[in-house]
Write a structure and sequence with these properties.
Blueprint: H1 3-12, H2 16-25, H3 34-57, H4 64-86, H5 90-115, H6 125-134, H7 139-146, H8 150-161, H9 163-176, H10 180-203, H11 217-223, H12 229-241, H13 260-271, H14 276-295, H15 301-339, H16 341-344
Helix pairs in contact: 1-2, 3-5, 3-10, 4-5, 5-9, 5-10, 8-14, 9-10, 9-13, 10-13, 10-15, 13-14, 13-15
Length: 345
């Protein structure tokens, strides 16, 4: 009998606590798929980079800033391992582990982004604003237009605030659909997209349209952009002065170009595309989300175009990485089965 199958059968005869304790004491190895190991390795590597940067720049990282995320990640991953090894419930395992890994990656990426402050290159927002003008777009103009429809503006605000929820919902949908290829491709694509976005911002900093323009106070009171001119002014200050502590940053995001909200929105659509109902729902949601990103995200139109490019490139790379990892895993498993005593007999 295969050792993993034997472990599951034995574990089922115990209650969950006994199963996990005996499993640890016996030195059993946790079972992670290649993509999951890749994300853990990337998170660990970026976390090391964060601590090195924090030490070199004398920037404080208070334990309470990551405690909740760390606890959530441990609980979610442990739950996933329990269902993968003890209960043989891969749907829940895939979902829990994907979300459990994404949470610390998001925090570490956000922290690393903050630790890159200050940036000494001039922001490229004036260039992006000029490029927007070629398409007849400006942030003050679109805010003035939506101010005529305050109820629609409020709806767009709510849609904008749910972008991360949309991504997590897609992870859950793919996990429960047992679609590991698309789930893990999407998860790795988000990791790649994060790195690409941070790298681009690090080389060519931008804070978005809200950091370049100052809205008319009357329009600002009606529209109430999530990322408004005061938010943009604070980003401009931090870009020059930097921070003394990670907790000093109250902003949920620093990057204007490429738009990471665009990445999250489009990645959900790309990942769930084969599923007709999910695809139709996400098309409708994203039809509202893209103007919401421009208005409430305080973005240039070029930011959105950049987000689209980052999404497509990262998805292309992630699908090929997943394919290579999956082929290697199958080859290794096949070789192990061929050389096992049971198979030989």
């Amino acid at each position: 009998m295969h050792s993993e199958f034997f472990l599951v059968r034995i574990s089922r005869s115990l209650n969950p606590a006994q199963s996990i304790v005996s499993w640890v004491l016996e030195g059993k190895v946790l079972r992670f798929h290649p993509a999951e190991r890749t994300i853990m390795l990337a998170t660990a590597a970026l976390a090391v980079a964060c601590f090195v940067l924090a030490y070199l720049k004398d920037v404080g990282i208070e334990p309470w800033t990551f405690t909740a995320t760390g606890i959530f990640a441990v609980v979610a991953i442990a739950l996933g391992q329990f269902y993968r090894i003890v209960r043989d419930g891969e749907r829940i395992a895939l979902t829990a582990i994907a979300i459990g890994l994404f949470a610390p990656w998001t925090f570490v990426g956000w922290t690393y982004n903050i630790l890159l402050l200050p940036r000494y290159a001039a922001p490229i927002d004036p260039i992006l604003v000029q490029a927007d003008a070629l398409f007849g777009y400006s942030w003050p103009a679109i805010c003035a237009w939506i101010a005529q429809y305050p109820q629609i503006s409020e709806l767009l605000r709510q849609v904008y605030n749910l972008t991360l929820v949309q991504l997590l919902f897609t992870f859950m949908f793919l996990g429960f659909a047992l679609d590991r290829p698309r789930l893990h491709a999407a998860a790795m694509a988000m990791v790649l997209a994060s790195l690409m976005t941070i790298f681009c911002w690090g080389m060519f900093p931008s804070n978005g349209a809200s950091a370049y323009w100052t809205l008319d106070p009357a329009i600002d009171r009606i529209v109430r952009p999530v990322v408004d001119s005061s938010y943009g002014a604070e980003l401009n200050r931090q870009l020059v002065e930097g921070v003394r502590s990670v907790s000093d940053v109250k902003a949920t995001g620093l990057i204007g170009f490429p738009s990471f909200h665009t990445v999250m929105a489009l990645m959900t659509l790309v990942a769930a595309w084969p599923y007709r109902i999910a695809r139709l729902v996400l098309i409708v949601v994203n039809a509202a989300l893209f103007p919401a990103i421009l208005i409430h995200g305080g973005h240039n139109l070029m930011d959105v175009f950049g987000g689209v490019a980052v999404t497509l490139i990262s998805w292309f790379l992630a699908v090929r990485i997943y394919g290579a990892q999956d082929a290697h895993e199958k080859a290794r498993t096949g070789a192990a089965l061929a050389s096992s005593p049971v198979q030989a007999a």
